Amino acid sequence: MLPFHAFANLFPLIEGVAFDELVADIAARGLREPILLLDGQILDGRNRYRASRAAGVITSEDTVEPKDARHFVRFIPAADGDPLEFVISKNMHRRHMDESQRAMVAARLSNISHGGDRSGEQEANLPVAVTRAAAGNMLKVSERSVGTARAVLSHGSGELIHAVDRGDVSVTAAADLASLPLAEQRRVIEGMDRRAVSAVVKSIRDEKTAEKKAKRAGREAALAVKQRALPEKRYGVIYSDCEWRFEPFSRETGMDRAADNHYPTTSTNDLVLRDVGKIAAKDCVLFHWATAAMLKAALRVMEGWGFEYKSHVIWGKDRISTGYWSRNKHELLLIGTRGNVPAPAMGEQWESLIMAPVGEHSAKPDAFYELIEAYFPNLPKIELNARRARPGWDAWGLEAPEVGA
């Protein structure tokens, strides 16, 4: 058989009754739409090619024989456009794929390079990797769904992947099933009883939730020890990243992505009562992180600690997150003062928007430490809820490194 182009293989082949009907139609009416070749590979028409061979309309094995040549045309990128965009457009209009199926295509796309015939006039268009975000946009699915589908492709059995491609199993359910041993995945899929599959998925999710709860309980106990008292030293700079508790619509079903899964959280009322003013010098500046959803709470906490809001800096992220009214791609670093703290000298202010990549959960970019150090190089500094040590800074919080560590 003629080889299939990698772009064509992004989409699953048709099978079963649908393929049998295509064979019968071509046997009765002939092949009416030509098969497109790019670099000797089938770019569009894999199903028509297979069906034509099954119907005896095309007889060549691995080359295009003269008698079959009328069924093939050559795709020329310079004239016919971009081969990847062509394949996606054709299949998106031709097929009725659900979101999970499109996510699987996008995941495959983000695993390959944008190649094809790039000779001659196409020399400027060298192969480049397709990012998850770009692949998601092309297939009209979220970047998160693409990531979920990639997990299925990486850890799922062939049977499980095939089930998602067919539209029999959602990509989110498949991602849970992919955590099982391969043999167990095959056993679940071979039965293909939807109720049984749902029960297995629910069991996996319940187990993961129980593990997260157990970890939170242990961290809660450690936090109690850490929070007995704040340091006795006074600071001119306090850098705070509170363990906000954001209440979902339902704590029974909406906790899967909650911050509680990563660290113990604290209610706004209790944060307001935290005696941060006790460690603040008479003249002190507070740099205070807030998400869009917790902005009102952050301002309330800032005021409760004895600081007056002055301004803020925006962290522009390199990837999108969740949100109810909009999908967030930024966080706010609020600036508040108490006493008489000098603002930066004219001409030395940083821009209010800092673009920086997202690191591990809740970690903040180095650029914001550098901003604070540039503004106040000599004031004693402390970071609340610190995750790592930084020269010249004290640290406090559950994950703060021990002195001298």
Task: Explain what the structure shows.
- With 405 residues, the protein is α/β, with parallel strands linked by helices.
- The chain folds into 2 domains: 8-196, no CATH class; 230-396, 3-Layer(aba) Sandwich (Rossmann fold).
- The chain is 39% helix and 15% strand.
- The protein has 14 helices and 12 strands.
- The chain has helices spanning 16-29, 46-55, 77-80, 83-94, 99-109, 132-139, 143-155, 158-166, 171-177, 182-191, 194-226, 268-273, 295-304, 366-375, and strands spanning 35-38, 41-44, 72-74, 113-114, 128-129, 235-240, 280-290, 308-316, 330-338, 353-355, 381-384, 393-396.
- The strands form 3 sheets. Strands 10-8-9-7-6-11-12 form a 7-stranded mixed beta sheet.
- Helix 1 packs across helix 2, helix 6 crosses helix 7 and helix 9 packs across helix 11 (194-226).
- The longest helix is centred in the middle third of the chain and has 33 residues, at 194-226.
- The termini are far apart.
